[in-house]
Amino acid sequence: MTHRLTIRTPDDWHLHLRDGAMLRAVLPHSTAHFARAIIMPNLVPPVVTSTDATAYRDRILAARPEGSDFTPLMTLYLTENTDPADVAAAHASGLITAVKLYPAGATTNSASGVADFARVQPVLERMAEIGLPLCVHGEVTDPDIDIFDREAVFIDRVLDPLRARVPGLHVVMEHITTARAADYVRSAPTGLAATITTHHLVINRNHILVGGIRPHYYCLPVAKREEHRLALRAAATSGDARFFLGTDSAPHADPAKLQPCGCAGCFTAPNTLPILAHVFEAEGALDRLEAFTSLNGPAFYGLPPNDTHLTLERTAPDIPAQVETDDGPVTVFDPGYPLNWRVA
Ligand code: NCD
Ligand code: ZN
């Protein structure tokens, strides 16, 4: 039985850090375990221009705990008015690592996202030219489409046509939740990858709805049937370089989640690595954990893996149930079983 596992320091390829007091409260939980993270731009108002991204990056850097050299990899929020020249300049200066596409209305703070894809064609073409990846929230927003089908329908109606219109564009399908998405990613030899969250490896839709409604398991894209959770576990633990970790750790204060209309998002930053060690061990794949957390993501983005290391040891972790913020407590994602691994 393995008792200690040393891997290259992980990166988080999809993270919500928020701003202000929430940023200061949650950031240390990511900097403790991750060297870099792709920072989601869905603030209010969103991070749309390079000026916005510079200011947000500086606020994140200023909020890092003493001694941390965590690197926020910034993104711009794609709107129908995004200027291709501003995007190209932000990429050339090293400010941004990706652009984020939210279909308008798909999730938290996505009202400024894209409705008419023809309007973003020039910026997507420019991104393909300069090798700047597009991170995609892959759900249609059509009210006629069942929420459990929105990812699969997005692939056929939006993503596949978009990739055909912009050949050469590097695309990350984010937080995939279906076997269909995993198969779609496998169908492309290059230029397409997917992030998988911690929580979608643990919960299916029953966890949200059976025996009472559990707001802390509600996130977008919503968790699907068990067969899909199993397909995600197979993809994540396969070692296939097209799949890597994006926690989608998305903190909301409990008063905002425990509402008649509560916010979507699971806060997994504090216990992602203990949970992943548990999942990979259960799948007999501890030797492939490093590929998922620390190697596949940098390879896709053309970055070197981190040259520091992190050790997991077989001891129960000490993780708070909640993290206190000025907006109220944020409940940490509960996998529903005891964890056996901690970060040493
Ligand atoms: C995210 C958030 O709260 O910002 N919520 C979520 O359920 N994942 C938005 C997102 O990534 O869809
Ligand atoms: Zn997200």
Written account of the structure:
The protein has eleven helices and 13 strands. With 344 residues, the protein is α/β, with parallel strands linked by helices. The model has no long low-confidence stretch (mean pLDDT 97). The structure holds N-carbamoyl-L-aspartate and zinc ion. N-carbamoyl-L-aspartate binds next to loops. Zinc ion is lined by residues 14, 16, 40, 248, 250.
Structure characteristics:
binds zinc ion, 33% helix, globular, eight-stranded parallel β-sheet, three-stranded antiparallel β-sheet, 344 residues, alpha/beta, binds N-carbamoyl-L-aspartate
Strand and helix map with partners:
Layout: E1 4-8, E2 11-15, H1 20-31, E3 36-39, H2 50-63, E4 71-77, H3 84-92, E5 96-101, H4 121-130, E6 134-136, H5 150-165, E7 171-173, H6 179-186, E8 192-196, H7 205-209, H8 226-236, E9 243-245, H9 254-257, H10 272-282, H11 289-301, E10 309-313, E11 322-323, E12 330-331, E13 342-343
Give the amount of beta strand, in percent. 15-25%
Distinct ligands:
N-carbamoyl-L-aspartate, zinc ion
Please give the alpha-carbon distance between the first and last residues. Answer: 18 Å
pLDDT below 50 for ≥5 consecutive residues: which ranges?
none
Summary, kept brief:
The protein has helices at residues 20-31, 50-63, 84-92, 121-130, 150-165, 179-186, 205-209, 226-236, 254-257, 272-282, 289-301, and strands at residues 4-8, 11-15, 36-39, 71-77, 96-101, 134-136, 171-173, 192-196, 243-245, 309-313, 322-323, 330-331, 342-343. It is an alpha/beta fold and 344 residues long.
